[in-house]
Amino acid sequence: MSDQTILRPATEDDLRKIVADALVDLRKLALRGSGSKDQVGRGSGKATIVDMTALSGVVDYDPAELVLSVRSGTRLTEIDELLQSNGQMLAFEPWDAAPLFGMPSGRTTIGGVVAAGLSGSQRLTQGAVRDHLLGFAAISGRAERFVGGAKVVKNVTGYDLPKLLAGSWGRLAAMTEVTLKVLPRPAASLTMVARGFTPRQAWQAMAKLLGSEAEVAAAAHLPPGALDRAPITAVRVQGFPPSVEARCRMIETIETDDVPFRRVDEEQASAIWAALRTVSPLGRAGPLWRVSLPARHGAAFLDAVDAAPDEWLMDWAGGLIWYSGHKPAAALRAEARKLGGHAMLLRDNAAAGVPALHPHEPTVSLIEERVRRAFDPGGVFETGRF
User: Fold this and answer.
1) Third-level CATH fold of 188-278
2) Which of these, 221, 204, 129, 125, lies nearest to 169 by C-alpha position?
3) DSSP assignment, residue 118?
4) Where are the domains of the chain?
């Protein structure tokens, strides 16, 4: 990409002018934060890159109201440090894609996180990025500034544009500012592990714990060889220390196929959740699929694609499968669709012609096209990447 033009707007007006000029010159614009997800999709060809990192900094933060407004180019590490100093956090456990492509972690911007709509392990119980995006400001493909949502948690006025922009991958508009709901950081967190479950047994155990009064915050299953010779099923319990202690004791008494859940130390717990956050057990080369489907079908999907133990990880109690095998794209997506899910290709330089996003049914594709044209009638943000 070294031969591509890179523009770095410092203000919203700079960005609006860049879009206006692109409309006149019939140029395409590729939005970029840290560049950690540049390799997702087919690349941006000869599009002009718009580097959003200069649009950074906190706009407004009210810890008492649990609301944070920041410019989209603000690094996730800066946000986490600010929230941590006030005993708070982003509840959807933001996910850093940089390590997947051999890049150092910590550079991801909040705008990139929201635009990609990728959430971590705690999405299972706390919701996705879109559920915590209260509002935004953006520049549309018409070179017009517009806003969506509001800086309050309870807001029912107008269309729910924040949910539309979250996960849009920069194809609708360039977000310049986002307002997020934050939550208190748990005072205590413990991880409990069971060893020896098959994927189907793991789902049954995780479902039983999630349906109990133990209030599990996250649940995942790792195959043998990922971190241990035995398969690992892990659940996270968090909150106030006395409550965490009582709920962990409860989990120890719940019958799960005669395989007990036992507490692990902080070092082991960190290794488990870091492995899921970085997907490191699946290596740094070759294909990587992110398959979302009903949790009860996670094990069935692994059987359908004949996944080897070193080719997958299971998060969200079975609702998210990371798959690094070489099943043909069409066959893999057919299996995901059959089970009520969809598959996104996050990484595979050799997969020429395979779209990163799961293809929609014709009717849905038509609706999507109409929505994109409403925000970007000239196709300024349509680079061919997806």
Assistant:
1) Alpha-Beta Plaits (3.30.70)
2) 129
3) -
4) 1-185, 188-278, 280-347
